Give the backbone structure.
Amino acid sequence: MKEFIDADYISPNWDNALFWNKYYSGLEEGSFDKESCQERNAWYLIWVMKSLNIERPARILDAGTGISYLVPFAKYIGNEVLGIDLSSEAIQVCKSRKVEERDLANCLKHGYNWKGNAFGWTYIDRQTRKEVDLMEKLDGLKQADGKILGYEVMDWNDPFLFEKYGCFDIILHQNGLRNASYKLIEKTFKSFHRLLNPGGVLIGSNINAIVREKTFAYYAEDAGFHLLPEHVFWDGKPLQAVEYEKDKKYAVCFYPTG
């Protein structure tokens, strides 16, 4: 059996807009899992905001939003949110579709155990073992005064992003660096550090990021981030208070499958 090394997980196309346009143009062809692309895990944002007592409305950048519902979800819970992506195809989907509360509720399902039956899916709280209603959970999170600042076809490393929108309190970055080159990872963390307000938090997650955790941690710290332990926020454990200094910039990274 081959012993995999870090280079095996690097894609030369990871920052190529044409590559991502081709990917998202498969929307109607069913060439990728549309549902999982839309219903990204919203619990990372909820846990971090609650644990760090981040006041709302927070200014949030969803960097690499794809066709996810994270921007309208973050708005729903009372924040000011900008979504950017390299893919014009993805941004067009986000701008043109109608988002229902049911869509946002489905972003919460990643925080529960699932079991299916002939009538659909049932969601189980991992602590109480009781069934939960996603719509009720969503309604309990709703806060007024949120707004969508816009959707932009933009590279998060583009200096114009700062010139137009300034800094943010939170940067969401789900699966944006999983197969990125070392050069792109380094550049990205430095850009995100510039884009964060003091006391701000970068929330990153990368699925199937086998053997790359140390790479992300190295470049995050090299850019000036202070790393927060992910176990503080992990579902199934009590939320713990985190002492942090308002003049520093923080990052927490989740690796849900490896």
About this structure: The beta strands are 59-63, 80-85, 113-117, 120-124, 131-132, 147-153, 168-174, 196-205, 226-227, 250-254.
